[in-house]
């Protein structure tokens, strides 16, 4: 089994609501390592790269607007099968439907906005993780 890296973001809603510490605590409690961490307000160019796969979808523009609305906490998480493991910790995309016990299920809900404000992002494959780590932590 090889150690993986995943790119995790605490999105602007999570940072604004003071949930960064809780998210990091859940990652550490699961046994994963925090390999790199920074807090920044992402510009549009970085978000266009990050969300390239969603360009043209109805939620794309509201998503970029939401994601640039304030600071995010970007983290490189490390551990065996941590890509799948963090996706399980996060819960399904829709925070209203996400299972209790997950980050989105315990801490998220609908707020009547045009985009799902679901607290966290986590890479969905080793290829995505490598690409996304390059976007948020160039040179790492
Ligand atoms: P993420 O990429 O953030 O980890 O989330 P995900 O894989 O569960 O969801 P994805 O399909 O990749 O969508 C990216 C993010 O776009 C927002 N979204 N809003 N219909 C909507 O309102 C809608 N659909 C997607 C969410 O913030 C989602 O996490
Ligand atoms: Mg995704």
TrEMBL record:
It is found in: Cytoplasm. It comes from the Bacteria. One of its GO terms (biological process) is CTP biosynthetic process. It catalyses: a ribonucleoside 5'-diphosphate + ATP = a ribonucleoside 5'-triphosphate + ADP; a 2'-deoxyribonucleoside 5'-diphosphate + ATP = a 2'-deoxyribonucleoside 5'-triphosphate + ADP. Keywords: ATP-binding, Cytoplasm, Kinase, Magnesium, Metal-binding, Nucleotide metabolism, Nucleotide-binding, Phosphoprotein, Transferase. Residues 3-140 form the Nucleoside diphosphate kinase-like domain. Its cofactor is Mg(2+). The keyword Magnesium applies. InterPro entries: NDK-like_dom, NDK-like_dom_sf, Nucleoside_diP_kinase, Nucleoside_diP_kinase_AS. The keyword Magnesium applies. It is an enzyme of class 2 (transferase). GO terms for cellular component: cytoplasm. Its main location: cytoplasm. The active site is at 121 (pros-phosphohistidine intermediate). GO terms for molecular function: ATP binding; metal ion binding; nucleoside diphosphate kinase activity. ATP binds at residues 11, 59, 87, 93, 104, 118. Coiled coil: none annotated. Its EC number is 2.7.4.6. Major role in the synthesis of nucleoside triphosphates other than ATP. The ATP gamma phosphate is transferred to the NDP beta phosphate via a ping-pong mechanism, using a phosphorylated active-site intermediate. HAMAP family: NDP_kinase. Homotetramer. Belongs to the NDK family. This is Nucleoside diphosphate kinase. The gene is ndk.
């Amino acid at each position: 089994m090889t150690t993986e890296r995943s790119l995790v973001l605490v999105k602007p809603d999570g940072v604004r609501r003071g949930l960064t510490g809780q998210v990091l605590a859940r990652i550490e409690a699961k046994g994963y390592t925090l390999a790199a961490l920074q807090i920044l307000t992402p510009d549009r160019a970085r978000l266009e790269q990050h969300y390239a796969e969603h360009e043209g979808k109805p939620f794309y523009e509201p998503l970029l607007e939401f994601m640039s609305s304030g600071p995010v906490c970007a983290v490189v998480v490390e551990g065996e099968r941590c890509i799948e493991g963090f996706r399980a910790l996060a819960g399904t995309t829709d925070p209203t439907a996400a299972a209790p016990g997950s980050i989105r299920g315990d801490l998220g809900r609908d707020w009547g906005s045009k985009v799902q404000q679901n607290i966290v992002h986590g890479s969905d494959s080793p290829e995505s993780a490598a690409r996304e780590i390059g976007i948020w932590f160039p040179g790492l």
